[in-house]
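chain below, 891 aa
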Amino acid sequence: MVRLKASGYVLVYLGAALLLSGCPDVGLKQHIVELAAPKKPTNLTATALVQSQVSSVRLDWINNDTNVTRILVERSNVSVSAGFTLIDELPKTAVTYLDQLGLNEETQYWYRVGAENDVGPSYSAVATATTWPLMSDADAVSADFNTLSVGFATGDSASSVTQNLSLPIIGANGSNIGWESSNAAINVSNTATTGTGTVTGQAVDTPVTLTATISRGTSSSLQKVFNLTVKQSDAGAVAADKSALVIVYGSDDSASSVTQNLTLPASGSNGSTISWASDTPGIISTTGVVVRPDTVGDSTVIMTATITKGSAVEQKSFTLTVKLSDLGAVNIAATVLASALPLSFGTGDSASSVTQNFTFPTAGSNDTTIEWTSDNTAIINTTTTEGTGIILRPDSADTVVRLTATIRKNSTTAASHPYWDLTVIKTAVTDADKVAADKSSLVINYASGDSVDAVTQNLGLQTVGANGTVITWASSNTAVVANNGVVTRQMTDVANITLTATITKGSEFDTKVFSGISVLQSDAGAVAEAKADLAIVYNVPDVGPSSVTTGLSLVLTGAKGTSIVWSSDKPLVIANNGTVTRPASTTEVTLTATITKGSEFDTKVFSGITVLQSDAGAVAEAKAALAIGYNVPDVGPSSVTTDLTLALTGVNGTTIVWSSDKPSIVAINGTVTRPASTTEVTLTATISKGTEVDTKAFTVTVLGNSIKLRYLDGGAWADYPDPPASTISVSEHGPALYALTSSGELYSCDGGWHKLPPAALTGARSISAYTGTLWALTSDLMLHYLDGINWKPASLNAPSGSVSLAGTGNTLYVLAGSTIHQLDGGSWTSIGAPSSPVSIAVRDGVLYALTGAGDIHYSDGSWTSKLPNQAPADSSVIGGGSSNLYVLSYQ
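prediction:
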């Protein structure tokens, strides 16, 4: 098929036939296809893009016709109406195009686009753009440094990271960006085009430092630090709340002895919810309500807590013992007591034949007490000596006496009262028989809890026998156990005390010996022994009181059953329970232990316990101490010409990372690249220790490379030939003007500047004429004078902090800090100064001072007088001579 265009028509030739559609007088099958030119594109815009390595222009337009075969893109670098050439052909649907074909930087180009079909092209209006200048590697890195940021997921921020991060790998200006993470909580992956910070949930909030290294080329590189916090995961929150979860018991209750309702926490401190289940809800409900059993003894109940946050779930079980109720306790105790005869008779006695004293229990099962009553107290007395039935045998006939037991717990008594009938046998016939019988039944009655091996209370010594005998006692150590049984406990245990009882009736008597009695030490002795043994336990990593960082173990019970209570003179640093809260600065604390037993007590003081400062305190102290180090000839931030010393570690073990808002001028390692013009740079130090971080900003003024030297010509400042690079001081001497550079080289000007022979003077700061030659001040405060072609040291030092030197034929001055000193008879004397002086000079015997505000004062006794002409802007050094004043300005 062949298409032939003519007068807006298309003739279609198919094989041997020419088809003309719409011509009824032609006999062939014909078709006429009318084809109009396409509508031209509109809204063409040309935008020059900021690129770092290649010039480019983006074109955008709107297509207005679908009867199009292609889009033509044409460009001219001549004018809006001439010089257009085709640079590309695009599909008919294209609406944008990026031109990077041989474009020059900072050049204007004109563009048009055409929509073409079989009729021909229709062109848009012309659009123009001028390409941007290309960036250097250093500028591209700096620009990408300033715009670089971390991409957070919705709802996240630097202080709360829960989802993966988006990390740029390529900067907008073509730099490469590599990422490093300080913690596995964020795992960074770098690919050719994208970067991802994969976040792993943590048990606790975790600080992470991401460091981005931005580089392009082989010599331009910067680092940028992002301090982030990965938030605790739901699993971490659940685990922490599980570990901290406890049941709150009523007063005096514990897990092994529950008598009151429980408090069951419903939520954890880390945001979890807590639900409870009971394996015996009839005893302990899921809300902690306790119903004590009445009949079956103590009940064991397992309470299970389910701790939940999000999809994280854990369980924790508590095994509790719910004590039998008082009513159940006394009824069970009564049943147990009644099941067997509970009385202990003397040798040969029984319930049907009682001749001697006997014992009975005063404590029953389930912590009950047993009270005994006798229906004939003249024969059996149950109240004189606890736990002992005292027998007074009748003389005439055997007697039956009933003993009744009442079981009690707190205010509850048993419903039943067991009883036993005892037959007390009448007395023997002779006094000797009575003595023998009472000797046989005689015992020492020990107080509850005491025994022959452990006596702490008075002894019960019977003085009348059951058969009417009289009993007297003698002690082998009356200072400890008196003859009447009164016990006086000593500071230490006392053993092997013997008590001898003499039993008498009429003229008959006998003795009975009780040996091996041991009296335990007194409460005062126990307290003294516990005090001597008491020590504080320091926990890892601490090893003693001189450097405490963790909690202390403070025992609450001491040797020999003593109790210990602690008090702190600084409870906010060390609490009374030993909890340590590290302060902002290292602090000494005194702990006092009060050791008690019974009514006896004593104290033991532990002083000089040194609690080391917290990480936050260390950071604050390091921040206060941090300063920038200035190198010769620089003395401060207002006129920086050389590299800075930036400390990477601070006091108290802190770490310091630096950033610069103009790294091309002052790099983060302190390297200074002086700019074309004087520039302020802000350096920010990030001080950290552990998880604590703070920042401190410093502003320094870096002097420009361009140095201007001017002199006062009448009432105006006039230009002097530009001095050598890095000139820091000038002074007249004789007919010539001399210049000193920061490297210590000396120049003179006689129609032009010439380097002089003296070797460079290390640490040079300032020069001035004095005593017929040139003198120089160096950074070590030494003064030197020019002897021929050599510098020689003078036997004279300048005051501390001296930065500027000025002299006349016989008078020498130095500026040290904000004070001017004059050499007077071999020593320096302060003569005052105007406010904020930065440099001094002498002209025609008069002393002048340049201030930070640019004023030039001269000495008139008060320094209030000043020249009407301020120094030119950015002037920081003044020089003088016999007739002129000079100033150095760093542009």
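The domain at 235-324 is CATH 2.60.40 (Immunoglobulin-like). Confidence is low (pLDDT under 50) at residues 1-33.
thats it, cya
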